[in-house]
Amino acid sequence: MFAYYFQLGMRSLKRNPVLTALMVMAIGFGVAASMITWSVFRVVSGDPIPWKSGQLYNVQIDNRGPQYNEPGNEPPEALNYTDAMALLRAHQARREAAFYDVALSVLPNDAQGLPFTADGYAATADFFTMFDVPFKYGAPWARADDDAHAAVTVISDALNQKLFGGANSVGRDVTLGMRTYRIVGVTGHWDPKPRYYDVFDGMQFADPPQLYVDLNRAIDLNIAQSGRNNCGGAPMHIASDEEWLHRECAWIPFWVELPSPADAQRYRDFLTSYAADQQRAGRFQWAPNVRLRNVLQWLDFNKVVPTESRISLAVSIGFFVICLVNTIGLLLAKFMQRSAEIGVRRALGATRREVYAQFLMEAAAIGLAGGALGLLLTIVGMQGIGLLFEPEIAQLAYLDFSLLITTLAVAVFATVIAAFYPTWRAAQVQPAWQLKSN
């Protein structure tokens, strides 16, 4: 029967092609606008590590006092060197990662090649395991390498392609920042969006890091940070590198892995106790002020989802709703024009349920045609998405099979829902009145 109703619906659509075209265009433009903005919103607002986001926590300790804090007495978003090293030595979490941004010159093995700069991180060994960084070759360095301040590095697959043609380069040497490092691992493709672990430096939508070196060795070599540092009201004059390390400047993001809520509470208590110890020692002149937020809480706190993506999505959905309201009016006019046909069918024994099935199937056909048009408009619109969003945001949007299926499904489902009221009105037609008047 559904095939029969579909056939009836297609015949009905052909009777008034102008009205049909208006409905198809309304659905097509509405669903395309929604899907284009959704393609951006789903990337920037998704959980970047859903299997583990409730176990990874960003650590904050107030090391400067309320006069330099954000509204709500929020501590700096990163730690200074003194606190970061103290937490690493205490080792109160299952895993702990401290890191900061670096930009190092890379010397190609080819004598004819020119040096270039690669961005990455000076990090501790747990960084890779904690954040589930995939490896194509080799593995991360061990905690023993952290303790030994080893000259080891992990490079990305993209950098490995550039330096070694994609071959397994584990065990080979590479010159970074005029120093020689031994490659212990090559990462696979790893580019979580947003980059939840480095919101402090505003890197949430940046290109993937290309290299990683040991944090302790980077400190020994005075490798400068390439990212942000937050010194509050501290004077800018620095007498030596050692003085810089022990200033109250926040520049080292610090994350811990805590498998359970009980572990998180114990670690929060430890942070409070640590801050209280610093207060008793005279370093802090204020009450303990610490924060411990998991991935989603951290992203929400930092408002990582761009405001324009939320606004654009809301506007496009509103536009789609307006298109559906117009479709309801057009369907109502179309269905009520066929009151005589409905009366005859009812007089011949058709039930209201069969009337519903026929007209909803006709609406589904309109939705399918509108979805097909919406697909074409979505494909075209994706090419101009940079006109709406910043380049680093726009480049994240992509068209995949799931978006295509979603476009068709939303178009059909929304049109069928919109057709319920016109169909209900059509099913209320009284056969006797129609037969008498016709």
From TrEMBL:
This protein's major location comes to membrane
Q: Where are the transmembrane segments?
A: 21-41, 311-335, 355-381, 401-421
Its topology with respect to the membrane?
Multi-pass membrane protein
Arranged from A to Z, the UniProt key words for this protein are: Cell membrane, Membrane, Transmembrane, Transmembrane helix
Q: Which residues form the MacB-like periplasmic core domain?
A: 20-218
Say if the entry is tagged with keyword Zinc-finger: no
Compartment(s) where it occurs, according to its Swiss-Prot or TrEMBL record? Cell membrane
Q: Does the keyword Protein transport apply?
A: no
Q: Where is the ABC3 transporter permease C-terminal domain?
A: 314-431
Do you know which Pfam families this protein is assigned to?
Answer: FtsX, MacB_PCD
| Protein name per the record | ABC transporter permease
